[in-house]
Design a protein that fits this description.
Protein name: Protein TIC 20
Distance between the termini: 116 Å
Membrane topology: Multi-pass membrane protein
Function: Involved in protein precursor import into chloroplasts.
Strand content: under 5%
Shape: globular
GO cellular component, one term: chloroplast inner membrane
Radius of gyration: 43 Å
Number of strands: 0
Order of helices and strands: HHHHHHHHHHHH
Keywords: Chloroplast, Membrane, Plastid, Plastid inner membrane, Transmembrane, Transmembrane helix
Number of helices: 12
Structural class: mainly alpha
Amino acid sequence: MTMASCSIPLLNLSTKPAIKAALIPHYSAIKSRHCFSLPLLPSRPAKSPAIRMSYNPTPATDRLISAVAYTLPFFNSLQYGRFLFAQYPVLGLAFEPLLPILGLYRSIPHSSFIAFFAFYLGVVRNPSFSRYARFNSMQALTLDVLLVVPLLVQRILSPGRSGLGFQIMAWSHNGLFVFSVLCFLYSVVSCILGRTPHLPIVADAAGRQV
């Protein structure tokens, strides 16, 4: 037997549909569709848009102007601490480093009025400054005006140098001094951090003027 007689003829699948159907399952069904459907891949979840947080810090110039503005009512309120300084001399040591600056401030004639109108006309009424600097300057000026009222009441009533009236005056001065120091520390620290200090009673009145 020759190799030619033993060879098995190759099947031409393209010319024998019956053989195609036998060898390939569901051939007729696949043929009728003319294409193969691919399985659907699981869709990837849509990426959520990145959230960007905008942080706008207060400029250093506005913070400096605001902090300096609060020195005006602070310097003018030191006179209310004379009773505490006399009673507790150690307390005066904490304010001793401020004496050169305070001496320079008081050496200028009418320094309080000059500083007051400099902040009011130069900052509060100047639209080129931010609202942060204008509000803090106005709040400091409002506090400075309120600290003058007890002196006017004292001159009108004249409590004297002894008695119950003098004791009430001393207590009120001590309270005003402690209040002004706390307001100064709170306001300056807030301005350094770029936050807006809100002083009781004063903040609402200052906000209406800005």
